[in-house]
Amino acid sequence: MLLPTLLAVVALFASLVLLVSGNAMLGTIAALRLEIEGYDAGVIGVVLALTSLGFVLGSIYGVRIVRRVGHIRAFAAFAGVAASATLAHPLYVSVATWLLLRFVLGFCIAGLMLVVESWINASATKETRGVLLGSYMVLFFLAASGGQFMVALGDPGADRLFVVAGILIALSLVPVSLTDSTPPAIEQASGLSLRTLWRCSELGLAGAAAGGMVIGAFGTVGPVYAYEMKLPVEDVARFMGISILAAMALQWPIGLLSDRLPRRLIIIVIAGAAAAAALATALIGHRSPLHLYVGVALMYGLAACIYPVCLALTHDMLSPAQVVPASRAMLLVNGIGAVAGPVVGGLAISLLGPSGLMLFLAAALGVLVALGLHSLAIERAPPVAEQSHCVGVAPGSTTIVAELDPRQAR
What we know:
CATH architecture: Up-down Bundle
């Protein structure tokens, strides 16, 4: 049963790899290009935050387009517009133009991810759901990291890298177009109110927002920070790529640890350790590239684990039938945090210099630690033996991938 399922989705995974690598590459070269053009870091943060805003809205409304015209046609439309928006970046570099391009790109990327994720989800069975989600996670992180390393192939001040990113996004259309598997129907999504989630777990919801803010801020303006720390472009690419690999490497062991220990304790510890790493990077990251790489890898790797553990903590308080609706609501909150993060992070760099980004991240993570300590006193927690399994979540997923969660009722 597993082999036929994997063969059915291999084309979808190929499209996923091309799409994620192209989009990850574009995010870094767009940030570097604005920096090279002399724009203030605060302005860069606002411009790039429009990508996250477009992604959030695309995750909500893009499904209507998919339902209306079908998966393959919708994918072709989204891919065509996304590739065009990518190639249009170097034609006219201005705040007004890029605000529009980044928003359109974010909306289209969300639509493309919706198609791929819903198709993969429809191919899953109860027995293969966990394997497919794990495969999705690994490929997502590897593709995102690979996209970052490709930035070293050229100069962000020229047009070549934008062309390469556009080609990758356009090529993601090919595997989906040639697959012979049947496109699924996307069902009407049910939701769970944020008030209900807040009553179930204040820390879980706050952690989703804080995790999105930290990951969004670093993933978007991190290249600006590295560039202002005097790293050459090829080292900026390694800087971002290594951070993503660290996030992938820590997901499984921290998830396993959270299955065996109280989750609030795990959230407090990893948020505190990430805050300490961010603060240390702000203070001593300038001493050598090694200090910078190690500090940021620890910070980003640990921070990327906050959302999955917070999601598992919230699921512990819910019935099995509420798992998927809760995941959708939590992803929305996480996305809102990802919109705010680049704006505040860019402003922090403008006001305090490059170390301002790390100070902001340390502060955001510190607030989460304080909330975690407070929650120990006011929120009930199930016994460790009754906790659900912690499932990894890739940054940049849409609400559809929540349905791959093997914890959901079937």
